[in-house]
Amino acid sequence: MRRGCVLTGLVLAAALFCAVRAQGASDLGQPQAAAGDKLILIGFMGGNVSAGNLTHRGASEAKELQQRYPLEMRAAVFANHDGKAALRSVLAMLGAGPDGRLSASEKSAARIVIYGHSWGASETVTLARRLNELGIPVLLTIQIDSVTKSNEDDGRIPPNVREAVNFYQNQGLLHGRSAIAAMDPKQTTILGNFESSYREHKVSCDGFPWVARTFMRPHIEIENDPSVWMRIEALIRTQMLP
């Protein structure tokens, strides 16, 4: 058994034991005065996918979690080219005024999880890095078949991130980064780099364009893989307050 499989089991077991809105096209809700005790969940879509495209699991997952846990979280989904809008949304959720400034206590109270697929995974790390520059902590980053965007570094996780995890596959013309690392291992725990394979078990890609299903099928299979999202949801739930 590969080390990744063992680590996968450990991460999932730990997440389940612990118990395991949006701007843009998805429109899950508008930011209010402050996040309070709510978890802020930010998702980024891959490629040129819009935030409201519910064919993609990254968008539908955020909507489902928001509906299921309205008192525990506030979820927002963005296209991967809307990183600046995502940052403004996070600051507004934390209570920043028009000038975007936060107090030290507002920053320290931040409870943020960021995830993304493909270019969206690269934007996940970029947003975490921008928050690091502002002194705002991030509980968890989740990368799904991460593909580096121009002028971005999706392989090194900034020290404001407490935990990070990477899911990837290595088949087909387009596949994700196989490993991420902490810039400061004393500050960031890498939960694992977990490989998925779709050679023997296929995942439905109904609703996706013919080109994507033909030339990058494994890349979109991991995006829609229920087993991957079960693990992701479990990890997200560990970040919620009891």
Helices and strands in order, then pairings?
Layout: H1 3-17, E1 39-44, H2 57-68, E2 73-78, H3 83-93, H4 104-108, E3 112-117, H5 119-133, E4 138-144, E5 156-157, E6 161-168, E7 181-182, E8 189-195, H6 210-215, H7 217-224, H8 226-238
Parallel strand pairs: 1-2, 1-3, 3-4, 4-6, 5-7, 6-8
Helix pairs in contact: 1-8, 3-5
Question: How does this model look, in words?
Answer:
- The chain has 242 residues and is of the alpha/beta class.
- Helices cover 35% and strands 18% of the residues.
- The protein contains eight helices and eight strands; from the N terminus they run H-E-H-E-H-H-E-H-E-E-E-E-E-H-H-H.
- The strands form two sheets. The chain has a six-stranded parallel β-sheet with strand order 2-1-3-4-6-8, with helices on both faces.
- Strand 1 (39-44), helix 2 and strand 2 form a beta-alpha-beta unit.
Tell me briefly what this model is.
It is built from 8 helices and 8 strands; from the N terminus they run αβαβααβαβββββααα. It has helices at residues 3-17, 57-68, 83-93, 104-108, 119-133, 210-215, 217-224, 226-238; strands spanning 39-44, 73-78, 112-117, 138-144, 156-157, 161-168, 181-182, 189-195. Strand 1, helix 2 and strand 2 form a beta-alpha-beta unit.
